Every structure is written in C-alpha cells, then in structure tokens.
# Entry
Amino acid sequence: MRLSRYFLPVMKETPADAQIVSHQLMLRTGMIKQASAGIYSWLPLGYKVLRRVEQIVHEEQQRAGHIPMLMPTLQSADLWRESGRYDDYGQEMLRIKDRHDRDMLYGPTNEELITDVFRSYVGSYKDLPLTLYHIQWKFRDEIRPRFGVMRGREFLMKDGYNFDLTKEDALHAYNRHLVSYLRTYERMGLQAIPMRADGGPIGGDYTHEFLVLAETGESEVFYDSQITELKFGDRQIDYDSVEQCQGVLEEFTSRYARTDETHDGIIFNNQVPAERQRSARGIEVGQIFYFGTKYSEAMNAVVDDGKGGKVPVHMGSHGIGVSRLLGALIEANHDDKGIIWPEGVTPFHCGIVNLKQGDDEADGACEALYKSLTAMGLEPLYDDRSERAGAKFATMDLIGLPWRITVGPRGLKNGVVELTSRRTGESEELPPEQAVAKIAQIYGVAAA
Amino acid sequence: MRLSRYFLPVMKETPADAQIVSHQLMLRTGMIKQASAGIYSWLPLGYKVLRRVEQIVHEEQQRAGHIPMLMPTLQSADLWRESGRYDDYGQEMLRIKDRHDRDMLYGPTNEELITDVFRSYVGSYKDLPLTLYHIQWKFRDEIRPRFGVMRGREFLMKDGYNFDLTKEDALHAYNRHLVSYLRTYERMGLQAIPMRADGGPIGGDYTHEFLVLAETGESEVFYDSQITELKFGDRQIDYDSVEQCQGVLEEFTSRYARTDETHDGIIFNNQVPAERQRSARGIEVGQIFYFGTKYSEAMNAVVDDGKGGKVPVHMGSHGIGVSRLLGALIEANHDDKGIIWPEGVTPFHCGIVNLKQGDDEADGACEALYKSLTAMGLEPLYDDRSERAGAKFATMDLIGLPWRITVGPRGLKNGVVELTSRRTGESEELPPEQAVAKIAQIYGVAAA
# Structure
C-alpha cells in the first residue's frame, strides 16, 4: 500500500478520554473511531489487524479439526426461554422487539442457537464427535463501556461448541481447545496463561481462562512464576490423540495459576515456594468450558447411544475475544513512541520510508523494493508522501510495523538502504536485495 | 475435508415452505438453517461459499483501489436525525433502545456513519479521492421475509462510499465501481447486467442496478438482447484511467436495459429493433449510486478546495448483496439433481468418491488423490463414508461440486479413475496423476 493512497488518520495528541495505553494508541494510530458508546468503527489499519487475528484463529481452529460456520447476530428470545437464560440474563442482554412485536435479542453468546442446530440434524452417536465454531459480532450492553475495544459493547468473538457422547470425549474436546488456544496466542506473539476460573453465566465445573499479564488487566491473578517459562513452541501435536492433548493440559495447568475468583491463599502458600509466588494483573483473552448436559437436557439435544437408548450430549463452549485481543496485543507490545506489532499480526509486514520523495533515484529504489516485497506475497506500507523524514519516522514508529526500510540518496550512493527493527531500534545498512531477502526470511516466505 | 468428519446435513425431501429453487436447495444441501423469520444460520457448506463470494468481492474492490474497513452493525439514531433519514425510514428499520434508553438502530446501510468518519478526519482536497468500503451484516425488518437468503432480514452486504472534490471525479468513481462489479460477477460465473434504475431511499440521479436474469427474479426487466453478448473477459484495466473506465461504462450501458421502475415503452420501441426486444425477470445483486452532496451538505462534510473555499464533497454509494448472491448463483446454476457451482465460488474444488470404502487399494488411491490436491492448495471433499455408490453420487450431485473423481477397484486394476464434470455430466477415465493435473489446470494452480 502506498500511504498517499491510504486512509491513515493519525493524531498527534493523546485523546483525553482514553485511559489506557491500548485505547490511546488505537485512537492515535487511526485504527478505530468510536461510533457510539462502546461501539467502534474499525478504520483501515485496525481492520487489517483484526483480520490477521481472525485468520490465525480460523487456521488454528481448523487445524484442530473444528468446523467453521456462521450464526446470525440477532436471535429469537424463544430459544433462550427454553434454556431458562432469557430471564437469568440481566440488562447486559440487548433486547429488541421487531415490527411484529416479537422478542428478539442481540446474541451475547450462542449456546442455545448451536444446540438448536445440533438437535435439528444430529440423532446418532455415529455423527459424534462434532465441534462447530464461528467468529461473529456479539453485543453486551455494558453499563459503563470503557477501555476502547477491551470492554466494548459490540465485540467480535470466536465461540466454538463441542458435542460428544461421553464426558471423557467432551474432556478431550476441552483439552483440544486448550492446546489450540496455546498455539493461537503464541502465533500472535502473546503469552496467555490458562488459569483456573469461575463458570459464570455459562456454567460448568471445568473452565480455564486465558490471561495475558498486563498492568491494565481487569483481573487480579496469582501464579507460580515457573508457568511463565512454558512455551508451546513448534512441537507437533496430533489433535486426535487423547494422550497428547491431556499431556499438554497437564503441563500447562498443573502449576498454580488462578484468577481472584478462584484464588485460595492457603493452597497458594502450600503449593508454591515463596520465591515463585507472583500476583499480577491480567487481561482475559479467552475461556474454555465443559458444562456437560446443562443445555442438551434443557433443550432435548439427545442422540442414540448405540445401545438402544437416548442420551443427552455432553457439551462445552470455548471463546476467544477477537476484537479484545487487539487491545491486549497493544498493552503487551508498545513503548513511548507507539505500538510494536509482533510479526504474526502486523498490519503491514514492513514500512518503506523514502527520505527524498521526488528524487528519481530514491523513488526508483523504493518502487523496486515495493515490487520485490509485493511479489513475494508480502504487504509493505510505502510512505511516499512529501513529508520530512522526522514526520515519516514518527508515523512509522507510532503505527508500529516491526521492520522499516529507509531509503535515501546518501545510502544509495553506497548501494545500501537501512533496515531497522522497531522492537530493538537496531539498524543495519545493506544492499536493497539483501534487505528484501532478510524480510522474506523473517516472514518465512520464498523469494519470488 | 473428509466427509466423515464434516457436518453436512443433507435432506432427501424438499422442504414444503421453500418456494423457490435456491431456497429449497440451500436447505436440502445443509447450507443454511432458518434461525428465526428471515434470519439464517450459515451451516458449514453455506459458510464456505459465503466466504468465497466475500473474498472475490474484497479482491476486486482492492484491485480498484478501494480501501477496506469495518463499521459496526448497531448505530446511534443521532446521525440519522442529522441526515433527516431517521423519520423517513419506515418500519423496515429495526429500532432499538439500549439500557440507558438511547435510540439505536441496526444499520440497513451506512451513508451517515461513513460521512461522520470522513468529516472527522478529512479536511482537504489533497486527501481526495477516497473510497472506503466494508462487508458487514445489515438488517431490514421486511414485513414478509421469504425466498431464503434472497429476501432475508439479516443479510451480508458490501457497501462502499466514494468521496471526491468534483462531480467529474465522483462520476469516475461511479464508473470505477461499475467496472469492478462487472469483474466481480464474472469471476463468480454470473452474468449481471447493469440496468438503469431508480434511486429509492438512497437518492441520486445516476444509478444502475446489476441484475441476474432468472425466472424467480423479483423485478421485471426490459433489454436489448445484444447486451447479453457482452463480456468483460480478462481485459486489463487501469482503474486510474478516466477514459478506460468511461469506455467500459459506455460499452455496457449504451444499449437499452431498464428495470420496470424506469422502463419506458416508447423509448424501448424506438431504440431497439423488435427482434432484439426482451422482457424477463431479474434478481438484483448490486447497485451503484452517485448522489452528489446530499449527505455531505446535510452533515457538513466539507473540504478546502485549494482555492481558499470550503466545499461539500461529492459522494456515491455502491452495494453488492453478498449473502443474496448465493441465492442468485443457485437460481442461475442448478438442474434437477441439485446445484452446479461455478468454479469461482465452489465450496470445495472437487469431490472424491470412494466406491469401495475399506478396500485397501481404493482407500489408498483416494488418500493419495486427497494429498496431491491438498498439497496444491486445493480443497477436495472426500466422501469416505461407508455408503453405497448411489448415495454418494446423489450427495455429490446435490451439493454441486463442479468436478468429481470416482475411485473404484475395477478402474484401479486398469490404472484409472473417473473424472466427471457436474455441469455436462461427461466423464473420462484417466490415471490418477492426470486427473489431478487436469483439476490443477482448471483452477490455475501449479502442481506441487
């Protein structure tokens, strides 16, 4: 993308009404604009990151064998009356009447709707196991929306639902989700720690929340410091293997890690040596639940068990806060100059800064870099505006592309451009082809 | 995808409440399930096609230089009061009150919201031209939703908005959209004819609707038969060229083609020789508008004109009915056995039917085909169920994958499999590697 043709309304001033750094930076970089309280328009830069995050979630869910679909945003109240949650849910549920005066609602979650899909088509244990998921906008009518997309009212969530014949099978689905979530967050450059949590309005005895440690987190968390040393890394996993998934669960959840909802000071002190005890704040970016037959019994989602009987299916639900993740990513990746995107989710793979726009040689070198990078399937952002160098650098630092190639007449005389890491600030001079090769290597793409 | 692990709830019977063939087939193939009146869940197969259609729309919009973003589904009523449309819009607008009793609505379109984005950031002619678009769910509270996704209440639409300094520039944006729409529909295998239409509630003197001819269309249309011979084809176009875009507009709109809203029998008879006069029914799949300063004046979206003055920007809006397109595609591509997907939008690139599941040789040959196709980036659907051949063929014909590879012990003895075109029904026997090579050629991918 050429910046002269893009829509990137960056702001110099920090907006006064934004209290936390991710909200401030998303506004300053022109990623989002508030449309009304707790509801945002995703401007082009923000939308690009949102799509990258969404794409990683899709890929990892499908790698785990989960099947994508899409449920609507508006639901009929009838299904929620069946499950008993229509009255339970408080004012956070946005209730709507249509022109025929029918009770509708903007879905805050989808257990009822997916259970209805399931019971409409599936009647036999032979069709199990089954896990369906979607990524769709939800609405939660927060009384005081704040912190930008971190606690918005209209938000994008991935929610997935497993249907299994037995509790054992459903717990394998639970473990499979845990593994896929670890991979998902790591690909985004985030460390999200699974912590024992509370079921809340979804219900369920088995539930873990995934928390990113950050000062601005809404939850207080308590954990064994050893847990932050765990990495999923690039290990291969067979998602069909009960043993392998169970092994990962045990590795990542056997040490003490709990949110304040489930924290127990006595267990904490008994189980964790004092020097490894940590308390911190965390941002919740996902949660997995096994809740058994809570919805299948209420809504009569039963299958033939192969022994002549009918049994309610065992279910769980599993969510990733897709739009909220952008806030968490920025909370965890920024400095005084702006955002520092991890390579996995960056809106553009690198920036190209032309120090002397209008200079034939500099323009030509920038165009050549742009073409080479684009031909490899990468997306550079080329600052081709007639601005002074300082302004161009400030914009690039603010929006936080992980790599920047700086092109100027002086370097070109020596046959070099400058490649700069946004994270370390380190620069090196090298010929343009080598800069391209290095970017290609970083992103794991083949030279064209 | 292996069918044994997929969720494809096909039905044998035609649902009684579905009146038109696309609605019937989308239900029978398990593409959609009604969630409530005029609101659908997109089951896995339907969701896949929806994504393919969406992807083509994205690619063609971006090729034309239009910038993607995303506006929310819910909007504040305040902006609609500014434009004067809050009261104008009738009961089709879904009006909502939030917990603080604020007036909200589920956006049926986004002129107000995008104009607010524009005026918040852009103040100079130097930032023009600018075209922003998004693909987002909309709601229109139809009194009698029907025909499945063709006239649903919650529907997915691409809507784009151009902002230009002058009428001439805005008309170039109009033409650019017309060209990009022609490419978009052709890539999907659809012929959509631009016809002179009526502005309706959006407003505007210049507007064309794109119609797909089909017996079940909601509009009566009148046209010169020469128009159906026009093809955009694979011609190269420079979207920055006023002349080229204008040329395409003239080529595709100079012949008589109007919907019943603007049809004029006298002009029709004078302009079109009797033997070329056609009347038919059409499905509207898109519409483009130039409406000048209607919204920018009402909402004070002005820019410096570079001559010391401030002028309201010239705007247009441009929509493609993404979810509705699936209905139109099926209306235009089906036979007695089911759907016949064009290659551009097919949910899976080809089917693999194993005639003797459990036979080592047949299973091995199917697995090898599956791997070869997947390695090239294609998505085959492998029917690995223990069903009889007839049931497998019926399912494949119903869901309409354009190509099917049939694998059985008898053919394998002679070293061949069977490759069948869904559209023509023609089959040929050839070695598995050649079947794969032919599929690769059809989809324009390189062998791995």
Observations:
- The first helix of chain B runs from residue 21 to 28.
- Chain B touches chain A through 55 residues (CB under 8 Å).
